[in-house]
Amino acid sequence: MQALTNRLKVVSRKPMTFWERMYLPAILKGMIITFSHIFKKRPTINYPEKTRPFSPVFRGLQILNRDEEGREKCTACGLCAVACPAEAITMEAAERKVGEEHLYKEEKYAAKYEINMLRCIFCGFCEEACPKDAIYLSETFAPSNFQRKGFIYGKEDLLIPDPKKDPEAYKKALGSRAKHPEGHGNEH
Amino acid sequence: MFLTIDWTIILEKFVLIVVVVMGSLIIAMYATWGERKVAAILQDRRGPNRAGPAGIFQPLADGLKLFFKEEIIPNFSSKFLFILGPCLAMLTAIMIGAVVPWGNKLHLFNRDMSLQIADINIGILFVFGVVSMGVYGIMIGGWASNNKFSLFGALRAASQIISYELPMGLALIALLMVTGTLSLKAMVGGQMDHIWNIFKQPLGFLIFLVCAFAECNRTPFDLAEAENELVGGYHTEYSSMKLGFYLFAEYINMFLSSAVMVSLFFGGYDIPFFNDAALIDKLGLNWVTIIQGGVLFIKIVCFLIFFMWVRWTIPRFRYDQLMNLGWKILIPLAIFNMLLTGALVLLKQNHWHF
Description:
The complex is a heterodimer of chains A (about 190) and B (about 350). Chain A is built from 6 helices and 5 strands. The termini of chain A are far apart. Helix content of chain A is about 20%, strand content about 15%. Chain A is elongated and about 95 Å long. Chain B has one domain (about 5-350). Chain B has 13 helices and 2 strands. Chain B has a two-stranded antiparallel ribbon. The radius of gyration of chain B is 21 Å and the shape is globular. Chain B starts with 6 loop residues before the first helix and ends in a 5-residue tail after the last helix.
């Protein structure tokens, strides 16, 4: 009969030779094999200390951005919520009062902005939809939580630290994805 | 009438007993850590590395976990025996340490203190007696669980230990012909003056080693706890620290059987390549004794690592293979070794004339 694949292996049913029946040489061989594994490289990455580098197009947690003066960019236009296929985003708009110019960049802002991280599929459509570059996906992923309500991220969770008050935390949160707002490749 | 008790010797022995028991417990504890590390290294993994540097507090965490687990005693078990089982396993495991010579002697407070709890003249026979008692821990535990799988495990353990004690004893007889003594201390002394017994009894050592693996219920002979056949073996119904005792007893057994093997075949606390008597003149008795203790410890650790190395290399025997190996191969081999040794010893006494 013609073989279908070339992976056929004929099982040898020959009686064992004396050398094989001695058993100890075989054990010794096996032990040499395991011994050689002492010098092999371990593929494990010590996770919390070391992380695997993400690809440049990795989409993680959303961040609400501020401009250089620390003003919130979001105008609560709702385009991200419309674009969101998982309907994870809800927001409530409010009008900027006199004297709040240092807080919000434009006359309208989001008083409430929530993303349900259990619904979010991290597609990045919100980032594409945003006309103000106010939201983008960072390189971190959603941490675990004990309760479902802990996964509904409000403004205090999403908003980037103030670059004026806490420039280091801002830098850290900004990550590499925000450096080239026009260079994501999303626009083309 | 006036029974005078030498209180200092009681105190001295008491201290020694506490040190040896505690030492075996700590070494057994760290043997679990070592086991996991060795397994990890041989399998290209990292092993425990979270609790403390390189995971050295892992055994403490494991022990704590076992203590906090719920203690379950099955309703249909015989409760007294159920508790007796792990106690017996632990007791017999620790008792072997009584006759192992851990070093020569220390000279403290103007008296010589022997580093052996009891230098009884039938030392090695005592070890054998205690080892065969060890199976009762497993047997009683497995039987008292009132569970078929536990009983299977216990049965297997019992038959295995009985089968392998025979070749072990026969291998030992050949060794006794060479050394001419049963006391472990005298055996070590003999090896310090001449060459180690491994060179006189290589085949005997091989048989003894294989049997030691079987006596300790270690892979490839861990049929008593073959999880894929017997759930958990004899300790299926055990939980919490009673399970911990069984697991601990296994490691203490391993440690002490390594110590016995080192004493029998690898010169015990003898420092290799040095004349110990000359060293005593140079460094003083106490220092040499401490070094000897260290050397013995290193030898034992080598054996422990060997035990683990074998465990993570070869798979478990099938039951019939186990019995075949024990009865059809090891016993004839041991008898052959015994006869050969006897003939050679007689020839040597006759100055190599037939």
